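Section: Multi-chain targets

For targets with more than one molecule, the full set of components is provided together so that the structure can be written out for the assembly as a whole rather than chain by chain. Components appear in the order listed by the source. The example entry contains two components.
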Amino acid sequence: MASEQPSVPAKAKLWNRPGFRALVFQVLLVAVLLYFGLTILGNTLHNLEQRGISTGFGFLNNEAGFGIVMSLIEFNESHTFGRTFLVGLLNTVLVSFLGIILATILGFLIGVARLSRNWIVSRLAAVYIETFRNIPLLLQILFWYFAVLAQLPRPKQSIGIGETVFLNNRGLYMGAPVPEAGFSMTIAAFFIGIIATFFIARWAHKRQDATGKQFHTVWAGIGLIIGLPAVVFLFSGTPLAWDLPVLKGFNFKGGMVIIPELAALLLALSIYTASFIAEIVRSGILSVSHGQTEAAHALGLRNAPTLRLIIIPQAMRVIIPQLTSQYLNLTKNSSLATAVGYPDLVAVFAGTTLNQTGQAVEVIAMTMAVYLTLSLLISFYMNWYNKRKQLVER
Amino acid sequence: MSKFVPQPDLPAPITNVGVIGWLRNNLFPSPLDTAMTLAALYFLYLYVPPLFDWAIFSADWFGDSRDACTSGGACWVFVSVRFKQFMVGLYPDAEVWRVSTAAVLFVALMIPMFIKGFKHKAWLGAFILFGFPFIAFILFSGGSFGLELVETNMWGGLFLTLVLSFVGIVAALPLGILLALGRRSSMPIVKSVCVVFIEFWRGVPLITVLFMSSVMLPLFLPEGMNFDKLLRAMIGIVLFQSAYMAEVVRSGLQAIPKGQYEAAKALGLSYWQSMGLIILPQALKLVIPGIVNTFIALFKDTTLVLIIGLFDLLSMIQSASQDAKWLGFEIEGYVFAALIFWVFCFGMSRYSMSLERKLETSHARN
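Its structure, encoded as tokens over all components, is:
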């Protein structure tokens, strides 16, 4: 008997146990981080005191004293810094929203063109994709702003389309619709149309499941959402006036205007992002194996229903997550607005407001918080979507 | 009975093969396609000849002032006169050889990486990533070995763009690896610290990071201590980039089968041994294309330093085109910058794609 061999292994020394090591390591990490954070905090407070900058968010209630070239809500010099934040935020939302719509349309078109069996169309789409995604976005924004839009004529020599649309180097001027009394009925009709379409679609779906009979939901929907408000609009006596832009002095007054800063930013953002979306769409459609198409054809589905019922729903599973992250990128990239002076959140708030108040920490923190909230919301949505659409494997 | 002699095969119908067949199948298979083809051809006819005419045939190539630009085409004189500034910024003329030497050295070091039979790629790669930057730094900034000191505010142009993106990647790689390992750690505090760090930097736009590094960083430091502008921008870029790098590395770590981790443990390797000897070598090899793609994104993003007042390539061109002597030649400047960025990014993306294909074959599906 080998009695010197203990039947129970000796207990490992304390510092050799994984649990203990993990604990020590984590305590150390927390200590280092705390020390680091406190040092930074101390330095910052000391530096701010030295420079005579007050801390806190009180500055948000002070009068801003500067104008903003474009705002969706009323704004002038006497409004507060807090309101500059809101103006910037709304402008960011506006350019991101428009950019996302344009980029999606353009991206899907180019992506489908890239897959076309027509050689020249597919080549052109490839050239588009490879050109625009390999050139920095900032360069594209500057190009549109300084090289293209700055070459437009002065207001007096505007390019006019009829008497309602004018294009010059100060922007694109258009007539603005002004609703009169009774227009709310048209809006109500529009929403009624949407709600009715929703219920009809549900009814049609149920009926098809039960009886196999099909119903032209699309046409009914178009009739309800567009036709119904149009009829109401005509019968209530077209209660809509147009505020037309008129040349007064050196520039146009009245109407709506798309300022060149917005146009340049929008063009560059949507063209750049579209090249990425096109690749996503292409890879999404290619990811659906050809067997699916063959199986659908074997079941007797024609090309259009195959695409609509078989290919696209499966391609969307691949497309949507990547598309969402492109939307997020576009929103973050819209902060490049500051290079051409479009008054978005970064330009107005982290730019002008920061310079005026010197409250660097608060301003940057607020700006970052906006983008962070947005990206966290989007990643929550993505996780939820991925869970819902995941292939259920048995 | 006569023997059956098969007739020779008939050639395929002329409309299905050769040039005509290709045209029919690829350009004119249906009326809609015919219309699209014709529209595309018309579009090309409308825009391509004038473009070539502007850029090449009726362009002005030689001269030393804007008076040389008379033909109405592109005025490349603008670019050739300012070429030195676009490449190295305000770097002193007498010292430009230092930048060129580093560039030549870099290319010379990179060549063996593309040679198939070369055996020491890993060592050479490690040297390029972690040894070369020090040599380059000594060359660029000087102040030792009898080299004259060149302040970083003289650095500019394409040179600065390359320095920023190279530093961004080289410094972000180790940090990204640590963060990725931390995010997959079983220690809850380590894991949450890494997750918060990564998600924070990935959630904010680079421009706010640059703003932060240029206005907030000086506040964080003890009084009297300050970095120069370039270093501050670099710190911002590295922190930002490390978060993206961490996610790339993490995707590689996730692709390594569990058996590898277990086998390493079974051999009695410690955590760092199993990571350094077993997991990371495989994971990093898998994510090389991902790293190259991150590099491309960073390379394009370095143009943002224009906004905080550093003079990279785009910024040089922007300020040159606002020069009173050269007003009205923005387009030439932007096209030149676009061409340089395009060549770099396109080249790298092709390289990454070829790597992806090469690496795919070595990992046959099981």
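Chain A touches chain B through 54 residues (CB under 8 Å).
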